[in-house]
Design goal:
- The chain is mostly beta strands.
- 12% of the residues lie in helices and 40% in strands.
- It is globular.
- A hairpin with a 3-residue loop joins strand 8 and strand 9.
- The strands form 3 sheets. It has a 7-stranded antiparallel β-sheet with strand order 2-1-5-8-9-4-3.
Length: 204
Amino acid sequence: MNKKTMYNLTYGLFVLTSACDGRDSGCIINTAGQVTSEPNRISIAVNKANFTQELIQKSGRFNVSILSEAADFSLFQRFGFQSGRTADKFAGFADCKRSENGLYYITAGTNGYISATVWQSVDLGSHTLFIAAVDDMEVLSDTASATYAYYQSSIKPKPARQPAGKTVWRCTVCGYTYEGDELPADFTCPLCKHPASDFEKVTL
């Protein structure tokens, strides 16, 4: 079985935001899509380890900002490589506004946003699947949406060259490298928090 077959599926990229009890947060997701048009409902899947998932569980509301090809890597660093439990991801961040539901959406590097209210949730083990009713949405630009493939080829920085003769394991999400002949099965990327299954072996 070739696990890389999953990479051939088409994914968009989004900043998912929510708030509860006076705390705002957001995270990067690649699973958002329309599931019905009448009534208009969308689905998102969020890792339970993300603080944003907790906020959605409590508040029942979220915004999805659709990342475009104008997005730069700093957006991924801000919303993907740190935890909302320990960092205020909106501190010093000017490229956002609040929508009618009171939640932030991202105004730079995006081409639209959708505001939604949770209708149903499904426990998927590591993730929660939220089915939600669309309350509001706006187009912000006509720049093409950023796919996961576009992120890999054009947004994510290229990894630094490693010395010859070394074996490294490279995170396919953010590019972090771990040096060693074997990668521990329980290893988690210190930057983007993805598991060992998202690393690939590179022999130089």
